[in-house]
Design brief:
Length: about 90
C-alpha cells in the first residue's frame, strides 16, 4: 500500500486526534514520527498518512475539521468577565 502524507503536526497528540477523526469516517490513517517527534529534538514533525486511494477525501476532511476549529471562538480564561452582569 502506498502511503501519502496529508498533514503534518508538531505533536503526536494533534496527529492522533486527526487520525481518530479519519477513523470515524472509515479511513485508516497512520501517524509517522510519533516517537521521534515527541522524544528527540532532531525533528518535531509528526506526519499523518493515508493510503493514496484515500488521500483526496482524507485531506478534505482534515481541512474541514481544521477550518471548524479555527472558526470557533476562544473560550474565556478564568477571571475574564463574561455576560452582561459581569461588572454588576
Amino acid at each position: 500500500m502506498d502511503l501519502v502524507t496529508i498533514a503534518s503536526y508538531t505533536s503526536t497528540a494533534a496527529a492522533e486526534v486527526a487520525r481518530n477523526s479519519l477513523a470515524e469516517e472509515g479511513i485508516t490513517a497512520f501517524v509517522e514520527g510519533a516517537v521521534t517527534g515527541d522524544m528527540l529534538p532532531i525533528s518535531n514533525e509528526v506526519k499523518l498518512q493515508v493510503a493514496a486511494a484515500d488521500a483526496e477525501r482524507a485531506g478534505q476532511l482534515i481541512r474541514e475539521a481544521e477550518a471548524r476549529i479555527a472558526a470557533e471562538p476562544d473560550e474565556p480564561e478564568d477571571g475574564d468577565d463574561v455576560g452582561e452582569d459581569a461588572g454588576a
